[in-house]
Amino acid sequence: MDLESYYEIDRTAEFILSRNFARVALQFPDDLLKDSTKVVRALYTKLASLKASSDEEIRGDGDVGLFVMADTTFGSCCVDEVGASHINADCVIHYGHTCLTPTSTLPAFFVFGKAPINVSNCVNNLLHTADTAGKPVMVLFGLEYAYAMLDLKKAVLEALVSYESQAELEIQFSDVVCSVLEPSGKSSDFGGIMELVGVSHANDAAGVQSGTRHSTGGLVWNVPQGRKVEEYSMFWIGSENAAFANLVLTFNGCEIVRYDATEDRLVTDLSQQRRIIKRRYFLVEKAKDANIVGILVGTLGVAGYLHMIHQMKELVTGAGKKAYTLAMGRPNPAKLANFPECDVFIYVSCAQTALLDSKEFLAPVITPFEAMIAFKRLFHLIF
């Protein structure tokens, strides 16, 4: 692995200097911590090189402090603004898988990584899926494959030119929302992350741009006017992770297939994900009988989390139930067992970490969306 390419050392150093940041927090997930010292050394070397060759004035004496966050307060996919505040960081550089949930106080720069993928094999499976689906295909992917999307799109266009059934195929690609998040919630595209491109046999991007906007797991795409998202077949490139589970739950009305880039094969059996949907529905039904509801604070940095907590309190009390608000970091069975009076817990977190498998918990853990389904009807009945 080329460390400088994988961790985008050049791009990261340019971002830090362009914003005149003096204290920078580097957030690594557990599986990438082993590379943290190498990344720090590479960044310091690159920063020194850029400052030596730059004529622009740097704030203060030009020194930049890099601080590695070896653990996260909550889920590693979210920007840990609490940990970064301990060293008064000006920004956070986030490495690895992310949900791209907006931040509250600090700007964040994302390095998604570069997982290997066989572009040719992926294209063949994509064309086969589009040919047999009999409907438009939407391509979605894990963010670790974002770097390969331009090559994949180019290969698809080249293949469609000579494809026998090209007149019947329509393939559209989702795109990454951003690579930089501002605390105001505004996104910025530093370094040229690809624009949203609709790819079909006619490559009619203009028609794709007008329509309904959808997003999930840091990806965004448009459905043209006159169409519904259920009319699409979803083609996911990546592993069977939290982002994929969230996709299946959110767009359960769509046909979904998964291309496993690690094993170079197409996976059409989604029975495990379908069982998750049934499980979540069961939890919603069980939550309706709860008398005391615990609201778990699963983040202190995601923009809007306080508003969501207040909204959940109003929802629960409006349904005639008692609500407790609990802040405990990452929930586990042992922690929640200290609150046996709670019949159900609502986990206020990002869309991906909120999907907890609570089979080992004494009480079910549901998402705010599921809470709205469970308690909204009761709220209307009471009032």
Model description:
The protein has 383 residues and is an alpha/beta fold. It folds into 3 domains: 3-111, Rossmann fold (3-Layer(aba) Sandwich), CATH 3.40.50.11840; 119-269, no CATH class; 282-382, Rossmann fold (3-Layer(aba) Sandwich), CATH 3.40.50. 34% of the residues lie in helices and 20% in strands. It contains 12 helices and 18 strands. The protein has helices at residues 3-6, 9-18, 36-53, 81-85, 119-133, 149-162, 205-209, 242-250, 271-287, 305-318, 333-336, 368-382, and strands at 23-27, 65-69, 91-95, 108-111, 137-141, 171-173, 175-176, 180-181, 187-188, 211-216, 219-224, 233-237, 255-260, 265-267, 292-297, 322-327, 344-348, 365-366. Strands 2-1-3-4-8-9 form a 6-stranded mixed β-sheet. Strands 6-5-12-13-14 form a 5-stranded mixed β-sheet, with helices on one face. Strand 13 and strand 14 form a beta hairpin. Helix 2 (9-18) packs across helix 3 (36-53), helix 5 packs across helix 6 (149-162) and helix 10 (305-318) runs parallel beside helix 12 (368-382). The longest helix has 18 residues, at 36-53. The radius of gyration is 23 Å and the shape is flat. The chain starts with a helix and ends with a helix. The model is unreliable at 57-61, 187-209 and 378-383 (pLDDT under 50).
